[in-house]
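Researcher: I'd like a structural prediction for the single chain below. Treat it as a standalone chain; there are no partners to consider.
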Amino acid sequence: LSLDDNWYISLNRTYSSRRKAAERLAETIGGTWQAGQSGLFLWVKVNPSMGTGDDCSDLLLHSAHVFVVAGSAFGKNGRDYIRISLCAEAAIIDQATVRILQLMSKN
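Model: Treating it as a single chain, here is the predicted structure.
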């Protein structure tokens, strides 16, 4: 708590970059999210064409080797959602997006 403002500014920039990368990933799968979310995760409503959050997370894990958490892990209201962690570097999230795009181009 005794750090100067520059530390907080830098941390906010880092997480803003990661959130933008997570939003690009969400766009890739046709997901939607509420702007202004805060925290270390981006909650994404799954496009119905991808099934439920469980279906989406299974597909991404097994076919694109991308791990996201199905919202159902947090209760029945999370059924149609996935949760993307912002704890990975933006470059890693972007690599996941590329793998998803490669998967989608095969189908």
